[in-house]
Design goal:
Layout lengths: L1 E2 L20 E6 H19 L19 H7 L11 E9 L3 E19 L5 E18 L9 H33 L4 E3 L3 E7 L4 E3 L2 E12 L2 E2 L22 E5 L1 H13 L5 E3 L12 H5 L3 H6 L6 E6 L5 E5 L2 E6 L2 E7 L7 E20 L2 E19 L12 H20 L3 E2 L6 E10 L4 E9 L2
Antiparallel strand pairs: 1-4, 2-9, 2-11, 3-4, 4-5, 6-7, 7-9, 8-9, 9-10, 11-21, 12-13, 13-16, 14-15, 15-17, 16-17, 17-18, 18-19, 20-21
Helix pairs in contact: 1-3
Length: 453
């Protein structure tokens, strides 16, 4: 891949992992390379300003250049940017030579190879470098120096060429360090972690480069494993939003792991006390009795009811009609609060509820934020009832449970998910106005980027 002097940034790292299929693709468009090339230019300019040319005393063949070159550099004053990659102006004031000025315009063509370490960290290396010194004007104050002009030029050319290429390598070393620094796990929420690593060497295609990433979630340092092994995920060639610098695709397996991580950490469990404010009129045997008369028969005197919602099954993630659907099946356990009893709570019933949630996605502060709302009907099955024999149909409770979900459970899930999930991160790169879209079988985020120090 030929890139003009460009430290190409991308990333990532991390330790060997058990997941073998990738679940995220980061597609970097040509536009991004152009942009990075532009911003890295400044970095290179700075780094070029530190170029020092060794004392040519050791160089016997180029003796006539000695002294002059040394002083040029010592008093070198880098003034700025040509329209090509590097513009360098050096001024020399000297009693013998008079005022001397050297102007150099150069371009560096470098082959930069992107590869991955055994740890899954990206590394950039220069495999070939060709400095092209396009223009070099040397103006001496005194005429007699013209006689040695050509030799000096050759010397400066050679030295500068070497140093320009070294600067590119130095800049890349810096970038590689940044990749490495970012190998730490992203921590978020309660005991949740997320690490991205490269699955294989990034692949360049016409106009873009695809980087296959493995996103690994952990809960209290335990890796979240999905029950079924997922396929490798690829972003279709035509999937890019060409106006964006970066396009990312997130597979079904990515979201399964994401929700599974929140479920494993207990984030989808909720205890609702009978005093819960927004369900003030619902948490009693009489409110339940309105749906299931057997409850009223068992408790003729209305008593308060506590509730516990527990989700332990893996949520099922699907993409349907350009929506991300999350199917959950929590157990809802209800307890009658019997204040006189030594056992304060008496089990009333446990019902399994199957609910479909539509997940809306948003990007905020480099994080993927999810929120959910209920879709369609709830499906209820009694797991156990403790209020006596009941031939009652659990669907009688549908409206009641829907109210509990809308007033308490879903806001809680929203709250749990609101911490957001870290997106793949590129050192010093910030997403600008990212757009999220749900496609047929993946979620896409397209974004422009901005360089930050
Ligand atoms: C996914 O691709 C990687 C590397 O290309 C390969 O090692 C792995 O076996 C693939 N996984 C599956 C599930 O096909
Ligand atoms: C230039 O070199 C000095 C001394 O080695 C260092 O402190 C400084 O950060 C360098 N500047 C750039 C822009 O590389
Ligand atoms: C969940 O959050 C989203 C976005 O904030 C909101 O639109 C939705 O109504 C919330 N759902 C519930 C049940 O609170």
């Amino acid at each position: 891949m030929k890139l003009i002097c460009l430290a190409m940034l991308l990333f990532l790292w991390v330790s060997p992992i058990s997941v073998t299929s990738n679940n995220v693709v980061l597609r970097v468009e040509q536009k991004a390379f152009d942009f990075v090339s532009q911003t890295q230019r400044e970095l290179l300019q700075e780094s070029f300003s530190n170029i020092s040319i060794p004392d040519p005393k050791t160089n016997k063949e180029k003796e006539c250049g000695r002294g002059v070159v040394g002083r040029i550099i010592n008093k070198g004053n880098i003034l700025g940017v040509g329209h090509t990659l590097v513009g360098k102006v050096m001024n020399l004031n000297d009693a013998i030579f008079g005022e001397t000025e050297i102007k150099v315009r150069a371009t560096v063509l470098a082959d930069i190879e992107v590869s991955k370490t055994s740890k899954g960290v990206a590394t950039l290396a220069v495999t070939d470098c060709k400095p092209i010194i396009q223009e070099m004007d040397i103006t001496f104050g005194l005429r007699f120096l013209h006689t040695i002009l050509w030799t000096i030029q050759g010397h400066i050319r050679e030295m500068l060429g070497d140093r320009l290429c070294q600067s590119v390598s130095t800049v890349l070393e810096g970038v590689n360090e940044e990749f490495d620094d970012s190998t730490e796990k992203n921590l978020f929420g309660d005991d949740l972690g997320l690490q991205y690593s490269l699955q294989n060497r990034p692949m360049a295609f016409g106009g873009y480069m695809d980087i296959d990433l493995i996103a690994k979630y952990t809960v209290k340092d335990q890796v979240v494993e999905l029950p079924n092994k997922a396929q490798n995920f690829t972003l279709p060639p035509g999937a890019s939003n060409k106006d964006a610098m970066i396009n990312m695709g997130f597979s079904k397996a990515y979201f399964s792991s994401l929700f599974m991580a929140f479920v494993s950490s207990g984030g989808f469990n909720l205890e609702i006390p009978s005093t819960y404010e927004s369900l003030a009129n619902q948490m009693s045997t009489s409110a339940l009795g309105a749906h299931i008369p057997e409850v009223s028969s068992r408790y003729p005197q209305p008593l308060r009811v506590d509730m516990k919602i527990v989700l332990s099954q893996t949520p099922v993630v699907t993409f349907q009609s350009k929506q991300l659907i999350l199917q959950i099946s929590p157990h809802v356990e209800m307890f009658v609060v019997v204040s006189n009893s030594p056992y304060r709570n008496q089990h009333l019933l446990t019902v399994n509820v199957v609910a479909s949630l539509v997940a809306a996605l948003d990007v905020e502060e480099e994080k993927l934020k999810t929120s959910v709302s209920l879709q369609g009907d709830l499906n209820l099955v009694f797991v156990s009832v403790s209020f006596g024999k009941c031939k009652c149909n659990p669907s009688l409770l549908s409206e009641y449970i829907r109210t509990v979900f809308e007033k308490a459970y879903l806001p809680h899930i929203n709250d749990t998910l609101s911490v957001g999930v870290p997106l793949p991160k590129v050192p010093n790169i910030q997403f600008i106005e990212p757009v999220v879209k749900i496609e047929k079988n993946y979620a896409a985020i397209s974004s422009n980027v901005q360089y930050t120090e």
